[in-house]
Specification:
By secondary structure, the chain is mainly alpha-helical. The protein has one domain. It contains 3 helices and no strands. The longest helix has 16 residues.
Length: about 55
């Protein structure tokens, strides 16, 4: 038997997927070049040089 808490989680929408769907919709509405889609954690901007140097 599956715990009630986990049953609720399985039935809920994935928040990341909801954000990705919203970003896709906005791209169609205002143009892809006007939307920064960070829903999957893949920034479309270069990493700051200071960060790379510290790595």
């Amino acid at each position: 038997m599956v715990n009630e808490h986990y049953q609720k989680m399985l039935g809920a929408k994935n928040r990341i997927r909801v954000l990705a769907e919203f970003a896709t919709k906005r791209k169609r509405e205002v143009g892809e070049e006007n939307v920064f889609d960070f829903s999957l954690g893949n920034p479309s901007l270069p990493v700051p040089r200071e960060f790379t140097q510290e790595m």
